[in-house]
Amino acid sequence: MNFIVEQAIRIAVSFLSFKFIQYYDLDLEINLPYLRTVYILSCVTYFSLASKLYQIVKDLDDQTVLEYPDLKSNDPKAKIQTTNCKYDLKKIDRGMIYNALYILGVGISHWFFGINQLMIIHMFSQVSSLLLTPVMRIHYFGSLPTGDLQRPWKEDTTSGILDSLKYPVETNPPATEFIDEIIKIDKTEAASEAEFDAFKSKEKEEPIPEIKESAKSTAVQESSLRERK
């Protein structure tokens, strides 16, 4: 499955969910129990597939060593060493945790704020997103781990959110590095502006060499004329 096919599936799922929202009357109270039932079945389907996938990876127990750069470390030479089995299980765990948090958000939006559209969107997207993950495509559909399926996979929104929850805001490594870079840029710009101002003021104080030479030659000519007189 190439990138174009994957994106086409995602667009089709989004289009289907929005069409469902458009034609399904969410204002009728009688429709809500059916919507809740279908959403719960979708959640059960997701966690059933994810649990089965977890067991498949665990039973396979691929101990091939996987080594890749640690992008969160300040040391550019730092690397993470693990196995394919542990790496895949970690990805599945993160996906289930993220989906559980999303379900919690959808539930709060539905019960306390009366927002029902999120249930429909997530009802379609959670299962389709799981089926399109690299770990599902490798272990469930038998795709080869080459190309875009070669480990390590690109970090997704899930890992970014879960990693940010480990640190308080003031000690979050990515934020700290970003702020440090901004400070360095500000200092560099300030130093450049100071050097430019000093250069301009010095330029005003000192006459241009050509003007100095012409003034000197004029003075010599005037003195020679006086001597002749």
Write the layout of secondary structure elements.
Blueprint: H1 3-23, H2 32-60, E1 65-69, E2 79-83, H3 84-113, H4 117-131, H5 134-139, H6 157-164, H7 173-205, H8 209-228
Helix pairs in contact: 1-4, 2-3, 2-4, 3-4, 3-6
Keywords: Membrane, Transmembrane, Transmembrane helix
GO cellular component, one term: endoplasmic reticulum
Region (Disordered): 196-229
Can you describe what's shown?
Residues 196-229 are annotated as: Disordered. The chain has 229 residues and is mainly α. The protein folds into 2 domains: 3-166, no CATH class; 179-228. Helices cover 71% and strands 4% of the residues. It has 8 helices and 2 strands, in the order ααββαααααα. The chain has a two-stranded antiparallel ribbon. Helix 3 packs across helix 6 (157-164). The N and C termini lie far apart (101 Å).
CA-atom Rg in angstroms: 33 Å
Classify the beta-strand content into a percent band: under 5%
Described by strand count, sense and barrel closure, the largest sheet is: 2 strands, antiparallel
| Domain tally | 2
Low-confidence stretches: 157-173, 208-212
- SSE order, as H and E? HHEEHHHHHH
State the distance separating the first and last CA atoms.
Answer: 101 Å
